[in-house]
Amino acid sequence: MEINVHLDNGLLPDKYGKFASANDIKNGKPLISFPIKLSNIPASTKSLAFTFTDPDSIPVCGFEWIHWTAANISPDQLELPENFSRMAKDPVVQGKNSSASPLLGDTDDDLKIGYNGPYPPDATHDYALKVYALSDVLDIKEGFWMNELLHKMEGEVLDSAQITLPSRAN
């Protein structure tokens, strides 16, 4: 399985992160998700899932920031268009991102599920996009936590792929 995301000079395009237009950022959270192209999906795949996280956030906030999770994407949908997070319809379900943490105090429910784009505070961060080809459609509901997704995928992963998507801080 292969993942392709367009990069500008080796970086995630600014419009999907910290330097998005003011109209595409809410409470400091970039809202427009980047397009993703997939190929070489196993023929027996029944659904796709992915996680998009920031391992470089660990020294900054103490944990790996969850920016976006989704499941039950049709294996026929090999191209997820720009803004897929805001346009996705059933049976696609999206999980909570780190903005949903009660420890962070974000009160805007609109920002707690789906895509919260990169916003590295200190330096360029390397974000991890992991895509999973699954042998079944998952019994999981909108607003799941990432750990729930990982548990539901146990024994269902046919193949997976990961790419690093750097995003600049300044």
How would you summarize this macromolecular structure in one to three sentences?
The chain has 170 residues and is mainly β. It has three helices and ten strands.
Report helical residue fraction.
under 10%
Give the tally of β-strands: 10
Number of helices: 3
Give the overall shape, derived from the CA principal axes. globular
What is the CA–CA distance across the termini?
A: 33 Å
Structural class: mainly beta
Q: Could you characterize what this model shows?
A:
Helices cover 9% and strands 31% of the residues. The mean pLDDT is 96. Strands 8-6-5-9-10 form a five-stranded antiparallel beta sheet, with helices on one face. It is mainly beta. Strand 2 (25-26) and strand 3 (29-30) form a beta hairpin. The chain has helices at residues 58-61, 84-87, 146-153, and strands at residues 2-4, 25-26, 29-30, 36-39, 47-54, 65-73, 79-80, 93-94, 125-134, 157-167. The chain contains three helices and ten strands. The protein starts with a strand and ends with a strand.
Please render the helix and strand layout as text:
Blueprint: E1 2-4, E2 25-26, E3 29-30, E4 36-39, E5 47-54, H1 58-61, E6 65-73, E7 79-80, H2 84-87, E8 93-94, E9 125-134, H3 146-153, E10 157-167
Antiparallel strand pairs: 1-4, 2-3, 4-7, 5-6, 5-9, 6-8, 9-10
